[in-house]
């Protein structure tokens, strides 16, 4: 039973605990101290390398020669002289109406395109349905069959298509042969 200690290393085969100087041989103690010092120096070197890299990246901002004018009256006047006066209410309403009209025309074009695609799909489906119905229609029969109506013939055909391809008449006791007609 282990009491106390610090986990030093662990892998698939070994778990190493450090339980203080009392339980470690002098050779192991020396190796542990060297490893600890090596880890500390490596961390310090990495930290120095990071500091050098970050110092080379950060740029010193240049001193501004002109005073800042963002959001001032002078900047506003310069912008209006360069870009013209702002829109009045009437022009703003016209622009909004134009944008709404453009949005609706775009929506209408998309709906027309979707309608055309849907119509082509419906036409293809109708053609496929016509082929299936043509396949299901009974073959030409002689005209002397007056006792069976078209509706009965259609029902008998559907029943016949649902039936198996053979009719079991019986089995022999030893072979269990199925006889097809």
From TrEMBL:
This is CRM domain-containing protein. GO terms for biological process: mRNA processing; RNA splicing, via transesterification reactions. The keyword Lipid biosynthesis does not apply. The keyword Ribonucleoprotein applies. One of its GO terms (molecular function) is mRNA binding. Keywords: mRNA processing, mRNA splicing, Repeat, Ribonucleoprotein, Transit peptide. Signal peptide: none annotated. It comes from Aegilops tauschii subsp. strangulata (Goatgrass). The lineage of its organism: Eukaryota, Viridiplantae, Streptophyta, Embryophyta, Tracheophyta. One of its GO terms (cellular component) is ribonucleoprotein complex.
């Amino acid at each position: 039973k282990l009491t106390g200690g610090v986990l030093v290393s662990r892998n698939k085969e070994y778990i190493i605990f450090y339980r203080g100087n009392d339980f470690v041989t002098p050779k192991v103690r020396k190796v542990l101290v060297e490893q600890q010092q090596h880890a500390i120096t490596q961390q310090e070197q990495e930290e120095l390398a990071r500091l050098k890299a970050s110092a080379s990246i950060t740029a010193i901002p240049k001193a501004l020669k002109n005073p800042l004018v963002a959001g001032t009256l002078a900047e506003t006047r310069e912008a209006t002289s360069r870009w013209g006066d702002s829109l009045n209410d009437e022009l703003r309403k016209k622009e909004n109406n134009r944008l709404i009209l453009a949005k609706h025309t775009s929506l209408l074009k998309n709906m027309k395109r979707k309608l055309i695609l849907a119509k082509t799909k419906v036409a293809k489906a109708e053609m496929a349905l016509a082929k299936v119905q043509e396949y299901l229609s009974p073959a030409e029969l002689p005209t002397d069959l007056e006792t069976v109506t078209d509706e009965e013939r259609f029902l008998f055909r559907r029943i016949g298509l649902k039936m198996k391809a053979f009719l079991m008449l019986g089995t022999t006791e030893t072979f269990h042969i199925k006889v097809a007609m």
